[in-house]
Specification:
Blueprint (H helix, E strand, L loop, with lengths): L3 E4 L12 H8 L14 H4 L3 H18 L6 H9 L3 E6 L6 H10 L6 E4 L6 H6 L4 E4 L2 H11 L3 E4 L12 E4 L2 H12 L1
Parallel strand pairs: 1-2, 1-4, 2-3, 4-5, 5-6
Helix pairs in contact: 3-5
Length: about 190
Amino acid sequence: MKKRFGIDIDGTVTCPTSMIPFLNKAFNLHITLEDIKEYDLTPLVDISKEEFAQWFRENEPFIYRDSPLADGAKEILTKWKQTHELYFISARGSHLQQITEEWFLENTLEFDHIELIGTHDKIAAAKNFKVDIFFEDKHDNAVMIHEACQIPVILFDTPYNQDPIPNGVIRVNNWQEAYKWVENWLK
């Protein structure tokens, strides 16, 4: 039975380390993914939230253009595209639509729809597109989407999303584990 998958992009389809080289270069740091213990990066860079927001706005097109795929994402999403609908729902702003679509084309990732909502609140988009399952890396997003939509949410494990999760949010280490869980769920 065909399902509609709601899928976050950054830190989920892209490798969660994508921003680290940019942070290290811009702020003269030597951090790794293990150093990122929360989603808010300002404590690591030692500048104000406003200054960091400005830096991010200026650099996000380059970060998104150069983000590597998460291991296994392409193979598994390609399999799922054959029998399911893939709706990518991202907090990226709509001004990044062209860069985002170009990245998908360059990485030969097929999609049914890409929705850049400009906010981390993905509940309305998940409901609007009637997704049956969601894939996310941001802890509070995963929990809120699950609770509001009553759908399973696959949470990709990272050092920055370690808070407890309710039943219905499924923590996985990689796309292979996500694939196994989803294939079992589909039966």
